[in-house]
Design a protein that fits this description.
By secondary structure, this protein is of the alpha/beta class. It contains four helices and five strands. A five-stranded parallel beta sheet has the order 2-1-3-4-5, with helices on both faces.
Length: 121
Amino acid sequence: MDVVLLVEDDPAIADITAMVLEDAGYEVLNASSADEAARIVAARKDIRAVLTDMNLNGRVDGLSMVQQLRSEGMTAAVVIMSGDLSLSNLDMGDITFLAKPYDTAQLRQAIGDACARHRQA
């Protein structure tokens, strides 16, 4: 079973997203902040994909959080979600952008592709 770290500070969105991913067969680890995500990544080396909101409450955004986690050795594939469509034009390297609102098929596809990229790396 592939492990996905979900970083989302809105509890309602986190619950729905986790339910969709769990129904698709993923183990979902929930974090509501960048600090909590860092603690989970430090403890769990089996994370294949990180799904994070770009706009997190706190001192860092989703992209900055990912850059920090990677500098600390995280190798998971990354999907950043946001309602700010201008972000889709940014070159984020190997990070996938998922525009909000998205449907369950788009979510499952983005995470499935991310997990596949991680397995191939």
